Every structure is written in structure tokens, then in C-alpha cells.
Amino acid sequence: MKRQKGFTLIELLIVVAIIGILAAIAIPNLLTAMQRSKQKRTMADMRTMATAWEARATDINRYNAAGITMPSGSVTIDNLTTFLSPTYVKTFPRKDGWGNNWGLAADQAWGVTTAAQVYVIISYGKDGASQGATYSGGATTLFDCDIVYSNGTFIQYPEGVQQQ
């Protein structure tokens, strides 16, 4: 009797099982890597925005020409774009890595003569929801936690293994 070429059903099932096991391991790691890349992009964009804001503040001696009173209101990204682009930054990041709006503030109201000393840039994280007006600071381990940048340093930032 002539032996036929091909795979047996058992061999095919074993291959499918191995592929399933590899997918079960790889997909969660891929999803975590995608979220981590969104965090890193957000942090890089925050540094870009802050550098432009700092450069303008050096020229005019205050932050509040592009800010609002903290924490009750917010300045729009359009206001910052108007004052900072293209002189201080070529293109301004309009959204964070997750596609959420930024939280932006300064400690003096828009256009007042009193010089603001503090500015804040906030990304509301993966969930897009604010954690509130007060931040504990330091490292966070959740993708949903806010990332807060103020006066040249991260106040609240992601560090270590992040959790969904």
C-alpha cells in the first residue's frame, strides 16, 4: 500500500495548540507595550510643551500669558498654540498619547500683570478622567493614573511595571 503525503489530524492539532499558547503569551505583552508607548509619547509631548512654555516665559518674564488660574479652570490648547507655535515649537501636540485633551494651568489668571510662577501640564491617563485637583506625587503603576508635569519636572509619573 502506498503511503500518502501530508499531516495527520493529531499533528495539526498539536501545531494549533502551540500557536494558541504562543498567542496567549504574546497578546497581553503586546497590549502592555502599546500602552507603555502611549505613556512615553505623552511624557515626551509634555516635555516639548514645557520647553516651549519655558522659552516663552524667558522672553516675557511670566507663564500666565499662556495660562489660567489653578485649579478651577483650563486654558485651551488653541491658546497655547497661538502663543507658542511656530516661534517656540514647530507643531504643538494637541492631544496626549491616548487622544485625550490636556489639562493646562498657571497660578495667575490669563493676561494679568502679576507674573505667574507655576505652570502645570496634566495628562489624564488612559481613562481620560482627572484624579482631582490634588496630586500625591511620585511614581504610579496604573495606566489610568494622571501624569503631571510642573515647572520643569514630573510631579506624578509612571514607573515600574504598569497595570491595566
List keywords for this structure.
single chain, 5 strands, alpha+beta, 5-stranded mixed sheet, 164 residues
Structure notes:
The chain is of the alpha+beta class and 164 residues long. The chain has one domain. The protein has two helices and five strands. Strands 1-2-4-5-3 form a five-stranded mixed beta sheet, covered by helices on one side. A hairpin with a 2-residue loop joins strand 4 and strand 5. The N and C termini lie far apart (58 Å).
Strand runs, count: 5
- Beta-strand percentage range: 15-25%
Spans of at least 5 consecutive residues whose pLDDT stays below 50 are: 66-74
Return the average pLDDT rounded to an integer.
83
> Spatial order of the strands in the main sheet?
1-2-4-5-3
Helix coverage percent: 25-40%
- What best-fitting shape do the alpha-carbon axes yield? elongated
Biggest beta-sheet profile: 5 strands, mixed
Radius of gyration using CA atoms only: 24 Å
SS class? alpha+beta
Task: Give the terminus-to-terminus CA distance.
Answer: 58 Å
Q: How many structural domains?
A: 1
Reading the helices and strands in chain order gives HHEEEEE
Helical segment tally? 2
